Amino acid sequence: MATAIWVLNDQLDAGQAALACFNPGEARVVFVEAEAVLRHRPHLQKQILFWSAQRHFAADLTSTGWTVDQLEAVSHAEALIPWLQANGITRLLVMEPPDRPIRQAIELLSRHQDWPCELEWVQNNQFLWTAEEFSRWAGSKKQLRMEFFYREGRRRFNVLMDGDQPLGGQWNFDQDNRKPPPKGLEGPAALWFEVDAITQSVINKLEPLVEVYDLPGEADPFHWGISRQQAQQVLEHFITSRLEGFGPYQDAMVSGQPTLWHSLISPYINLGLLQPLAVIQQLETAGRERDVPLASLEGVIRQLLGWREFTHGLYHHFGEAYSQSNALEAVTPLPEFLHALGGSGMGCIDTVLAELKERGYAHHIQRLMVLTNLGLMAGWDPQALTSWFQAQFVDAHHWVMQTNVLGMGLWADGGRLGSKPYAASGRYINKMSTYCKGCRFDQTKRSGDDACPFNVLYWDFMACHQERFRSHPRMALMIRQLDRIERSELDAIRLTARGLEWAQSTAA
């Protein structure tokens, strides 16, 4: 019996479950680069990272004695089926991908008339909680809230614990981590890398395909890490130069400072180049040794042990139908400036999109409170915006974006994930960023040609959905404020909102 292991490009870990079933020489390993993935128009930085990291991992496996084949073709079928036949493969192991569409596509491929072998799934070991364990935790709970799941994870994995109590006497220091940026705020320099020969070969491959598939973003400069070694260096750099300052200013947004104190490790964890529990343990050990403020240490660990695991668990727990959620009946097409990665005229939006265009990256507050906040209030089609997010960000995968964009950002699930819509006016952006300085829109106005679109859309959104939210415990206050706005002003807000062709709400 000839056995092979198909390693997907987000499973780049020598300890991943399918590889762990064998020793080198006992099975062949195969990687596939299919040009067909470019039909989804991934950001150039993302595609370079994915293919380059895959090629580097293949080289690492080869150096440790594995027999490795790297296949390139237009489609996965054109690459894989002839290879399986030529090598007499009778058993193909694949570690379960976290992304549902990828598993479905592989199962469909295995039903091809020329498919020659048995397909065997191996349970994914890249998360701390399996889907089954999460569902048992969820049980019959009426509300699934991250805070309680996070506390359970702290206890289960003995992270930041003092006996059976949380270190420092409380579970959550979020209130300490919301400082607006003071004038002149600058974060430490990020750790970037130069392009090597393997990465350059990927860039060369993609160059003639940019126009064919209309790929967004910029390929140059490309400075992301592409190996386990470089990913580990980024983690260590974060610990030594950024961890202490991460907490206070993790929500701040500063022009010319796209990374501030953020870790930049999410792409590497999601690709398998770093393992979540090992990262958490390294952070805790280093944080205690370096006497890092607990608010900063707990803040970053909560992102990994809490939010990452929680959203992955919800993705599988909610099931396939979740991806079609649209509780607010939003159907407005995405604006051209989003596809072009610039040109909105709004200081905040264009700053974030420019940074995204260059790196394929924006930190979590830029994503939540700028990009998806605008999409929520403008009534953009949630499925279209979620797909856009998945294509644009270097750390984006289907399982990541469904819950983060559909649920957290757009409230398209009607509150199954988040307790309230994260709608915010220009006041929030002015407080937490430097983006409003020099913007042609006035962040103090809510109607008129020069009114900040975030202000206009905020009050228009509240007016459109007031009956839905009037009795909502966390929204009722804003509806009461809405009730105090004069009818003439509400009409002016609505007229201004109607003038934003890219923001046509469907609500009456």
Description:
The protein is α/β, with parallel strands linked by helices. The protein has 3 domains: 121 residues, HUPs (Rossmann fold), CATH 3.40.50.620; 135 residues, Alpha Horseshoe (Serine Threonine Protein Phosphatase 5, Tetratricopeptide repeat); 163 residues, Orthogonal Bundle (DNA Cyclobutane Dipyrimidine Photolyase, subunit A, domain 3), CATH 1.10.579.10. It has a 5-stranded parallel sheet, sandwiched between helices. It has a two-stranded antiparallel sheet with strand order 6-7. Strand 6 and strand 7 form a beta hairpin. Helix 19 packs across helix 22.
Question: Notable features of this structure?
Answer:
single chain, 508 residues, alpha/beta, Rossmann fold, Serine Threonine Protein Phosphatase 5, Tetratricopeptide repeat, DNA Cyclobutane Dipyrimidine Photolyase, subunit A, domain 3, 3 domains, five-stranded parallel beta sheet, 22 helices, 7 strands
